[in-house]
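Milestone 3.1: sequence recovery, worked example.
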């Protein structure tokens, strides 16, 4: 595997000699091709004189994603306007604390789809925001996984195979942005402050923290520490059960 990664870097054209062709199958396939190529021990990989600048995008339709025509066992390319960008948060899962970011993407017809990115992809959003590189207007997610959480279709990364490009500059992205600007739908980009926010962590005495019910938390307009007493209704199995669906055990 190390040899393959060394000789097959992303974005470079190569000539591959002596390999095995077999039937493709399984989940999270990056292409709809019926066959797959397997690198062998005696496979020879050399530079290629042929070059092509095409990104070979195969953008999925939002409507086909939501109505089930896009099969979840295939990874997809999806691009859209970023809306409702949430804060990057640390989530405890399997003794690690991966970062997570939730947001929506919108196509030129106004269709929206929920997205949730984990780990290095959430950090990519965080670094972009902290670097004052401007608003995240357009996002391209390549080799994305179609998931389903609580009956809602959600786009997420396929472990580390996904490629995320923020504000892409390829021809397809420029054309998409121009169509969004000419569309009667409002271009409701995220309202992000140019000022960097400095946050200081303060250790709470959990004996003094008040118990709140979920309805109170939903009505809250300020950040504060609280405790909730609830029952677990369901668990999202992605990332080791890091997302819980909970219900109050008492009514406020």
């Amino acid at each position: 595997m190390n040899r393959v990664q060394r000789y097959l870097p992303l974005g470079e054209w190569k000539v591959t000699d002596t390999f095995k062709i077999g039937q493709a199958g399984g989940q999270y396939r990056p292409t709809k091709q019926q066959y797959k190529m397997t690198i062998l021990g005696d496979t020879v990989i050399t530079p290629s004189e042929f070059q092509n600048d095409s990104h070979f995008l195969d953008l999925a339709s939002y409507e086909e994603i939501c109505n089930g025509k896009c099969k979840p066992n295939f990874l997809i390319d999806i691009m859209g306007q970023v809306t409702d960008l949430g804060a990057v948060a640390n989530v405890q899962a399997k003794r690690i604390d991966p970062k997570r970011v939730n947001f929506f993407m919108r196509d030129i017809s106004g269709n929206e789809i929920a997205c949730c990115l984990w780990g290095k992809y959430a950090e990519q959003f965080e670094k972009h925001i902290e670097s004052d590189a401007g608003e995240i207007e357009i996002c391209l997610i390549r080799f994305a996984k179609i998931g389903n959480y609580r009956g809602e279709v959600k786009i997420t990364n396929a472990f580390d195979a996904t490629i995320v490009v923020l504000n892409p500059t390829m021809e397809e992205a420029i054309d998409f942005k121009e169509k969004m600007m000419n569309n009667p739908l409002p271009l409701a980009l995220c309202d992000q402050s140019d000022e960097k926010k400095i946050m200081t962590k303060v250790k709470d005495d959990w004996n003094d923290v008040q118990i709140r019910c979920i309805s109170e938390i939903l009505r809250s307009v300020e950040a504060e520490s609280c405790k909730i007493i609830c029952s677990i209704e369901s668990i999202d199995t992605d990332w080791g059960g890091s997302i819980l669906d909970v219900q109050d055990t008492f009514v406020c």
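The mean pLDDT is 83. The chain has three domains: 2-47, 62-182, 200-252.
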